[in-house]
Design brief:
The structure is a single chain. This protein has 18 helices and 20 strands. By secondary structure, it is of the alpha/beta class. It has 2 domains: about 350 residues, TIM Barrel; about 70 residues, Alpha-Beta Complex (Oligo-1,6-glucosidase, domain 2). The chain has an 8-stranded parallel beta barrel with strand order 1-2-5-10-11-12-13-16. A 4-stranded antiparallel sheet has the order 17-18-19-20, with helices on one face. The protein has a two-stranded antiparallel sheet with strand order 3-4. β18 and β19 form a beta hairpin. The longest helix has 16 residues. It is globular and about 70 Å long. The two termini are about 25 Å apart.
Length: about 475
C-alpha cells in the first residue's frame, strides 16, 4: 500500500460488518484498542450487496456502498487517517447488476450486451470438450452458464466463479469504461491502493488455459497505468505457480505472497526450514505478507504447474499431502469438513481453516509464525480473524454450507472485548506495534546462515540493527536487541 508512515508497517484486512458492524466501527477500533498496530486497512468488498452469492465479491454496483456499512463519506473519513485499500473485482459482476438485467430484458437491442463475455465470442462457436478441459478455473464444474432472455431465447455466458457472477469482456470499450468509472469513484473517496481481484482470469483466448496469459499481463500493465494516473497503487491477487507471482511482481506495485502460509506451516510442522529458506531467497520484495485471508490456505501456490510439469513446485507432492493432512489433524478435523468436496467450495485447491487452528491453538507456535510473517521483506497484512487468534466457526459453516465461512466469523463487541483480553492477542498486538515503529525495517534485509530448524534474519538501518531468530522446533523467538515487550 502507499503507506503514510513506515513504508512496510502492518495493515489490517477485514470485512467491515464482520469485525465492527460498519465502516465507522472499523475506524473506531483502529483509533482505539488497535491504535499503533496498523497504518492501513484493506476493506473487503463493501459494495451493494455485501451478502450476495460470494460475500461481496459479486457486486451489483461497484460505485455504491451497501448502506448497512455506511457511505462514501465513511470511506473518506477512514482514508483521512489511514491508508485504505479496496477491491476492483475485475473479472465479473453480479447477475443482478443493472447492465446484465438490461441485456436479459432487451437482448441485442441492449447497449449493455457487449459488456459480457460469451464462449462464442472467444471460440467463434461452442467450444469442444477438449477446449473446455484446458480452461483453468477455481471450481470443478463448467465455467459456462445458460441464461434465459425475456423473449424466451437462451444463450451461454462465461461464469468463471459461480452462475451468479457474470464475466466481463474487459477488452471491449464498454468493459474498460466500467472499470475506469470504478477507479474514478475510488480516487474521489481517498482510496490509496486498489486490489485487482480475479484479474488472472480476465483475458480469455481459445486453445489456452484462459488464465495468466501474456495478454493478461499486458492488461494488468494497462490497468496499473490507469491506477497510477489516479495516484493509486496496485496489488494483484492471483493464486498459481510461484513463478507466475515472480513474473507479475515487476509490473505492479504489490503482489501477495500466497506461498508464505503453506511454507510457514510446513516449516513448523516438520522443523525443517529448507523450503521456506529457499523461498525467502527468491520471493519478491514488494510482497504483501499473509498467513491467512478471507479465502483458504492455498496449496496450489507451492505445487508444480499442472499444465507444465517442467515447472516443479516448492514442495513435492507427498510433502503437500502431508501438509494438508497435518492441517486437518491440528484442527481436530474441523478443516476437513470445510474443505474440498466436503463443503460448497469455489477453490478446491485451498484448505479452509483459521491459522490459529492450523497450529493446534498453540500460542507460541502461532506467534512464531506471525514473527516470520513480520520479519520478512514486504508488508505484513493481518486478517481480522487471525488478529484475534480465531478458531474455526463450525456453526456458521453449518448454516451456510460454504467452506470458507469457517474462517469468516462475525465478531460481536463482546467477542472483541474477550479476544483483546487474551494473552495471545495482547502479544500479537505488541509484535505488530513493534513492527510498525522499529526503524530497522526501513533498512536492508539479510537472511543469515543458521541451523536447518532455525530461520534467522538481520535488518539494518542507519539508526538501528535488529537480529531475529525463530526456532521452528521449540517455537522460541529471539530478538537482539530485546524489545522489552
Amino acid at each position: 500500500m502507499v503507506l503514510r508512515q513506515n513504508s512496510t508497517a502492518p495493515v489490517l484486512i477485514t470485512y467491515a460488518d464482520r469485525l465492527a458492524g460498519n465502516i465507522d466501527g472499523v475506524r473506531a477500533l483502529l483509533d482505539g484498542p488497535l491504535n499503533g498496530a496498523f497504518v492501513g486497512v484493506h476493506l473487503l468488498p463493501f459494495f451493494v450487496p455485501i451478502d450476495g452469492a460470494d460475500a461481496g465479491f459479486d457486486p451489483i454496483d461497484h460505485t455504491e456502498i451497501d448502506p448497512r456499512l455506511g457511505s462514501w463519506e465513511s470511506i473518506a473519513a477512514l482514508a483521512a487517517r489511514y491508508d485504505v485499500m479496496a477491491d476492483v473485482i475485475v473479472n465479473h459482476v453480479s447477475a443482478q447488476s443493472t447492465p446484465f438485467l438490461d441485456w436479459l430484458a432487451h437482448g441485442d437491442a441492449s447497449p449493455s450486451g457487449a459488456m459480457f463475455l460469451t464462449p462464442q465470442h472467444v471460440f467463434g462457436g461452442s467450444p469442444t470438450p477438449a477446449e473446455v478441459a484446458t480452461i483453468h478455473r477455481p471450481r470443478p464444474t463448467s465455467p459456462f452458464t445458460e441464461v434465459e432472455f425475456a423473449d424466451g431465447t437462451h444463450r451461454t455466458v462465461w461464469t468463471t466463479f459461480t452462475d451468479q457472477q457474470i464475466d466481463i469482456d474487459v477488452e471491449h470499450p464498454m468493459g474498460w469504461t466500467y472499470l475506469i468509472e470504478i477507479l474514478d469513484r475510488f480516487r474521489a473517496a481517498g482510496i490509496t491502493t486498489v486490489r485487482l481481484d480475479a484479474v488472472g482470469y480476465a483475458i480469455k483466448r481459445a486453445g489456452t488455459s484462459c488464465f495468466m496469459l501474456p495478454e493478461t499481463l499486458e492488461f494488468i500493465r494497462r490497468l496499473t497505468a490507469a491506477c497510477h494516473k489516479r495516484s493509486m497503487a496496485v496489488l494483484v491477487e492471483m493464486h498459481g505457480h510461484h513463478l507466475d507471482q515472480l513474473g507479475v511482481a515487476p509490473h505492479v506495485d504489490l503482489v501477495y505472497d500466497f506461498v508464505l502460509p503453506p511454507l510457514t506451516l510446513d516449516a513448523i510442522y516438520t522443523g525443517d526450514g529448507g523450503p521456506l529458506r529457499r523461498w525467502i531467497g527468491m520471493r519478491p520484495a514488494n510482497a504483501i505478507n499473509v498467513l491467512d485471508t478471507h479465502d483458504g490456505i492455498g496449496v496450489i501456490d507451492v505445487g508444480a504447474d499442472a499444465s507444465d510439469p517442467s515447472r516443479t513446485g516448492l514442495l513435492p507432492p507427498e510433502r503437500i499431502h502431508d501438509l494438508v493432512e497435518a492441517i486437518h489433524d491440528h484442527s481436530g478435523g474441523s478443516s476437513r469438513t470445510a474443505t474440498g468436496a466436503a463443503a460448497s467450495n469455489l477453490d478446491l485447491y485451498q484448505v479452509n481453516c483459521t491459522f490459529y487452528d492450523a497450529l493446534g491453538r498453540d500460542d507460541d507456535r502461532y506467534l512464531a509464525a506471525r514473527m516470520i510473517q513480520c520479519m520478512l521483506p514486504g508488508t505484513p497484512q493481518i486478517y481480522y480473524v487471525g488478529l484475534f487468534a480465531g478458531v474455526n466457526n463450525g456453526d456458521l459453516l453449518a448454516r451456510t454450507g460454504v467452506g470458507r465461512d469457517v474462517n469468516r466469523h462475525h465478531f460481536t463487541p463482546a467477542d472483541i472485548d474477550h479476544a483483546l483480553a487474551r494473552p495471545v492477542v495482547q502479544r500479537l498486538l505488541a509484535l505488530l506495534r513493534w513492527r510498525a515503529s522499529e526503524p530497522a525495517f526501513d533498512g536492508s534485509f539479510e537472511l543469515l546462515a543458521s541451523a536447518p530448524h532455525v530461520i534467522a534474519v538481520r535488518w539494518s538501518s542507519p539508526t538501528s540493527i535488529v537480529t531475529i531468530e525463530v526456532d521452528l522446533i521449540s517455537a522460541s523467538v529471539t530478538i537482539d536487541p530485546p524489545t522489552g515487550k
